[in-house]
Amino acid sequence: MSQADTKTLIEGAVQRFEDDVPALKPLKLVFRLELHARGDAPVWRVELPGPRVSKDPGADARVDVAIPRAFFNELARDGRLADWVEAYEHGHVRASGDRQIIRLVGKVVERQLARERSR
User: Fold this and answer.
1) What pLDDT, on a 0 to 100 scale, did the predictor assign at position 118?
2) How does pLDDT run across 71-102, given as a tens digit for each residue?
3) What percentage of the chain reaches a pLDDT higher than 90?
4) Cα–Cα distance between 95 and 18 in angstroms, integer?
5) Is 101 exposed, middle or buried (0-12, 13-18, 19+ CB in 10 A)?
6) Partner of 117 at 20 to 30 A CA spacing, among 5, 60, 82, 99?
7) Domains along the chain with CATH numbers
8) 3-state class of 5 per DSSP?
9) How far is residue 106's CA from residue 119's CA, in Å, rounded to a whole number?
């Protein structure tokens, strides 16, 4: 997959996640995305809102997100909020860095899932 295709896939995944959790749209955050694939782990810098995606080490990132490339491809194409949560709970998606931001995103996602269940 080319770099442009990956960038488009990342942008689409972030936009879909924001659509699933509208409360996160105003969040200003830079995170580092590592896509592990066969000994290689390309690093992407993702800036919100936007998203603005670049192939950059993301030295100013407050959160690091690591995910195997195969899982990311599936989630980016077809994944909804529940799929991302399941991948996180099973350890396929790992987040590290600023604990307050990770907790904030987790609480907002939990509330959104609760809203969806109550409908």
Assistant:
1) 86
2) 999 999 999 999 999 999 999 999 999 999 99
3) 80
4) 17
5) middle
6) 99
7) 3-118 (3.30.1050.10)
8) helix
9) 20
